[in-house]
Amino acid sequence: MMQKKFSKAHTAQPSITRKHFIATTLAGLGSTYLSLSPLTFLQNGSEKIKAIAFDAFVIFNPQPVFNLVTQIYPDKGAELIKLWRTKQFEYSWLRTAAGKYKNFWEVTADALVFSANALGVSLSTDQKKQLIEQYLSLDLWPDVLPALQQLKQKGLRLSFLSNMTTDMLTSCMTHTKIETYFEKVISTDLAETYKPDPKAYRLGMDAIKLAKEEILFVAFAGWDASGSKWFGYPTFWMNRLQSPAEELNVIPDAEGKTLSDVVSFLNQ
Known about the structure:
The protein has 268 residues and is an alpha/beta fold. The chain has two domains: 16-61 and 139-266, HAD superfamily/HAD-like (Rossmann fold, 3-Layer(aba) Sandwich), CATH 3.40.50; 63-136, DNA polymerase, domain 1. The chain has twelve helices and nine strands. It has helices at residues 18-24, 38-42, 56-59, 63-72, 77-98, 104-119, 125-133, 144-153, 166-176, 198-208, 222-231, 259-266, and strands at 4-6, 51-54, 60-61, 139-140, 157-162, 184-187, 215-219, 235-238, 254-256. The strands form two sheets. Strands 1-9-8-7-2-5-6 form a seven-stranded parallel β-sheet, sandwiched between helices. The chain has a two-stranded antiparallel ribbon with strand order 3-4. It is globular. The two termini are 17 Å apart. The model is unreliable at 8-45 (pLDDT under 50).
């Protein structure tokens, strides 16, 4: 099945450089796909969707973290951001594979310490605390609030399904004042694992009490979109960065650049 792409241009977008990619936001991996008619997806069950589960970074913009890094380390900020983000995911996946779980808050701290040591930059206790705690007050992407209002008006049940801890998610929700839009805050910490482990995705079904075909998962990263499709969720890839293709032999059902594209997709 081909994928429905929601964007102003129907031609492939130019790839961004890795440096720009890391320095501006969290890694989001995936691909650009050909279009298909709305009927194609309807035949695969979009009319059954009753709820949406979002990865946290579809909603929250991590730019404040990057801004603080470059403020503290003006000479090596871009390098530190790049290595820190890489190690965050390496550590989460390595610990999952080895059965040596730590939650995302702890993994994020460990990845920061390693990265600072690797680059030879000083990291005081106060600086470490300041950087880690920035993850508690992330801002919304500009398109989020209007789209959340429209999705709620459609009667859809909205939840998070994220590798971030419950405390991290709740704090960011309070900071951005969006608590009333979300029915469930689902952290993979509940299963002591990380996406793309199927046990992590199953938490959405268990918490929302719906079949997987009734839950649209909206992914920020391409690997997360692939993991969601492997699990069996209808999947929308929020490709804000117009990132290049993952070669994982699976594609999401649709792709867009903003949350308004999810609204358009569900209105087909």
